[in-house]
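Q: What would this chain look like folded?
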Amino acid sequence: MHSSSSNNEVGISLDASERNMTSIVIISIIATIGGFLFGFDSGVINGTVEGLQLAFKSESAGTGFNVASILLGCAVGAFFAGSWADTYGRRGILIMASVLFVLSAWGAGVATSSTEFVIYRLIGGLAIGAASIICPAYISELVPAEYRGKLSSMQQIAIITGLTAAALSNYCLATAAGSAINELWLGHASWRWMFWVGAIPGVIFLLTLLTIPESPRFLVASGKKDKALSVLTKLYGARAAEKTVADIYASLEHDHKPRFADLIDKAKNRVRPIVWVGIGLAVLQQFVGINVVFYYGSVLWRAAGFSESDSLAISVVSGAVSIGACFITFFLVDKIGRKPLLLIGSVGMTITLAIVAYAFAGAPLDDKGALILSGTMGITALVAANLYVIFFNMSWGPVVWIMLGEMFPNQIRGTGLAIAGLAQWAANFLITWTFPMLLASALGLAGAYSIYAGCSLFSVFFVIWWVKETKGVELEKMEG
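A: My prediction, written as structure tokens:
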């Protein structure tokens, strides 16, 4: 039995023997289906570009917007999801997102024009943005503090599994039809089926969400104390439930309905430091260039001497490696903490990105302007890029989502997440949009990767100076 001071520290973990860990894990897995759909919807577009160009007769700029449009929807969804979740509940927003996932998958497949397609992809973006913010927040509000990092890290595993599943699904459908633009079933082209497949996990997400409870912290904040007590009793036992509800109530009793003005520290008349830390984590997660490696990976592989047909196999292997790296976080994040993992990742990414930039810097160009890497440099770039992916996915990939879901005090969790989510997707859009321009400029691939290496180096100091450890801290004890 803990002492009373220890109970105040640990809160929800009181009477650990009464916990229903099976239910807690199942609920967490259901919530992370949103992460799987986030990955699947982001990745499915890669196999459909040729089909989109043919079907909509779009120029490269139009196709580029078709591909990037989803990120704009993501930014809007992430921004509003936090405040909507304070009004309609975490589970309520996830149910809404699941419906939008299904609608987007169906609509993108039936679209007959670029405009129609972009509208449905924007709808999908709203769902991804909402899921990216609310899934980790929901998990962090329901699980014990000492398992929060481990269970929240499943979000990143789910995202990469979704990306890998989309690559595999696209490959199987394109192979079955002969190519993405050939007819497959019922007179429809293969690329349309690539989108429709995404409706299946969307429906599964919707049906399973109907079986899980609302976040007890939201229920207490909404005046539904008895309902919160019932949820927590089933998961943690009566004594822990009563203490947790009392802790939540105590943390909220001096508060009012959440609003964006709460992000300002009234006494000092400035934005709360925790908000800047959240924005910094969200932006740096993108500025280290991970989505460039994902979206434009084939440029790297071809420069390293691999054929275009090998790039899909490499992306599937990279996906498997990424999932493996996430499991490092899964097992370590609640033992060594968030901050050490972020630091290890920052240092590792800085070194590996610098090596990739160095490999590209000395490479000559062929008559088409493509890089020619020697055998040794090609392998060096390939190994360094995969090590970079490992460092990212054992640190900044999952840990940022974990921290954004848990680091804000109860009163500003929804609004803090909204701002951080908007910043994260805006940064994603900026990096994705500017990479082709960097590629076409005098800087080229070497310059682009040098910029991302510089951002990784900055992230080392950002973590040391500004990021505070949240391992084992109860959500009611978060300061900001």
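Confidence is low (pLDDT under 50) at residues 1-14.
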